[in-house]
Amino acid sequence: MGMLHVREISRGFHGTKVLDGLSFDAAPGRITGFVGANGSGKTTTMRIILGLLAADRGTVTWQGEPITQQVRQRFGYMPEERGLYPKMKVADQIIYFGQLHGLDLATAKRNTAALLERLELTGRADDLVERLSLGNQQRVQVCVALVHEPELLILDEPFSGLDPLAIETVLGVLRDRAARGVPVLFSSHQLELVERLCDDLVIISGGRTAASGDRESLRSRFTTPRFELVVDGDAGWVRDMSGVTVIDLDGARVVFDATDNELAQRVLTQAVERGPVRAFGAVVPSLAEIFREVI
Ligand SMILES: Nc1ncnc2c1ncn2[C@@H]1O[C@H](COP(=O)(O)OP(=O)(O)OP(=O)(O)O)[C@@H](O)[C@H]1O
């Protein structure tokens, strides 16, 4: 099983630096979400990993070795600009890409049939690609990236334009691949989705890694302890407790930051003394909040 290391890569266009010493890993069996603002260099990074673009500086290694063209053949890539042939039949197209990546015809056909079924496209196998909706074309693109059973999967915005059901389907396929030990790296703007899907995260800003690591440790690292309390009457008194910062107050419900857990417990004790408590708990920060903090 392989590990992808990206180390200190830099790349500029016409004198403007886009990547400026970016480093991160994509580990076997883990789904790594790659997030950053528009134009932050996600596509550029992926293109460098795939050898479609050269880095000005830095290295990318796979299993500790520089990546050769032969090794790249065993990677799967779903580019942002989707590259399907509109006049080709769906199944033929996937088989064709399988063969391009070195599969024999029988294996390419077998893998294609399995993927079409998995992505719920079996009935469309003989349709021309151009006859498919954009969402279905995207599913075909996922098949193309997977047909040769890649050792590493890199997907640029694989979920954009998919409806919720299609998202679940594609997500299931990616999880399967990860479960077999493949590192899966994907970029996305849909933070809730990244949050739900990823094991690890890389947040890029200013051409560098602004934050990276597994989801849970990122959450605890980047946020102060936040709590929610719902009482029976008015919760306004929480504002007067020292050390507490009220984030949101709406009648009986209050969300607050406390400097530590003991303080939060004191707020709870106060609440109980004042009357019934309907709910109390820690609020898990969303990725969107972490994102705002680091970018
Ligand atoms: N071939 C190129 N020539 C000139 N500039 C480029 C080229 N490729 C990328 N850029 C510039 O590099 C910057 C980063 O682009 P990139 O597509 O990598 O960002 P991104 O994070 O993928 O953005 P988005 O989320 O909008 O897709 C942009 O300002 C873009 O205009």
From TrEMBL:
Its main location: membrane. It is found in: Cell membrane. GO terms for molecular function: ATP binding. Signal peptide: none annotated. SUPFAM superfamilies: P-loop containing nucleoside triphosphate hydrolases. It comes from the Bacteria. Residues 4-231 form the ABC transporter domain. It is a peripheral membrane protein. It holds the Pfam family ABC_tran. Keywords: Antibiotic resistance, ATP-binding, Nucleotide-binding, Transport. Belongs to the ABC transporter superfamily. This is ATP-binding cassette domain-containing protein. It comes from Luedemannella helvata.
